[in-house]
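User: I'm putting together notes for a lab meeting next week and I want to include a structural view of one of the chains we've been expressing. I don't have a solved structure, so I'd like a prediction I can at least talk through. The sequence is below, exactly as it appears in our construct file.
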Amino acid sequence: MTVASDVRVPPENSDAAPSGPGDAASLESAANAARGTGKRDYVQQMFSDIAPRYDLLNHVLSLNIDKAWRVKALRALGWREAPRGTYLDVCAGTLDVGAMLSRQDGFGGFVVGADFAVPMLQHGAGKASRRVLSPVGADALALPLADASVDGAIVAFGIRNVADLDAGLRELRRVVRPGGRFVILEFSTPRIPLVRWGYHAYFHHVLPLIGRLVSGHRSAYTYLPMSVAQFPTGDDLADRMRRAGFATVTWQPLTLGIAAIHIGQVSA
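Assistant: Thanks for the context. Below is the predicted structure for the 268-residue chain, given as structure tokens.
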């Protein structure tokens, strides 16, 4: 596996402070980013700003259900078929998924945790030893990895933040070895009307308020439901994975359709 040496996580600048535009401009930037305009710059800055509170808010706002979802996603990765292999956690954030994989009984491999919001990686850097989990500052659209260099890849709640979804899927297809799997864990919109109503009420009203109060960011948790609303449905995402070159694509809803797991395999 080849990893570019110039994308390693740099020392954290403890004097840096989040900054951003006023409320109206910030909300407009979030809405534009959710639709795809200026998405890369907005997402990178937004996640850099909320990094200190990200883990807390993830677990609080999901009522801790997100942990069980991650366990299922890792199981879907099929790492036990190559327990000493190299795996990629892309859009890795604070490295929750990579660290969880490194702690699995029987796992003797190595995990690369890639994200372009370096402060997120810095806040998760102590979750596992560098001998088993390496944080790498890198864009999901241009991974510093050789073709067919990882045994599997996973992205948890990050693929909808990629500026070009189809290009991102093709890039993941490029780095996964034949026979390896790519797993997506992402929010979705429930199909049952009553569940969908409650989901929208929480996602669009309660979550942004709590997220703003705890994180101090003006628009991050308004962007989240907007981005989910713009994201492809389960079948549509599966079709886009197939067009990117993944075979045997399957998917399943989780917790009444609040989230979903998609699995694609690279043909052997």
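A couple of points you could mention at the meeting. The chain has ten helices and seven strands. Residues 95 and 134 are 9 Å apart (CA to CA).

User: Perfect, that's what I needed.
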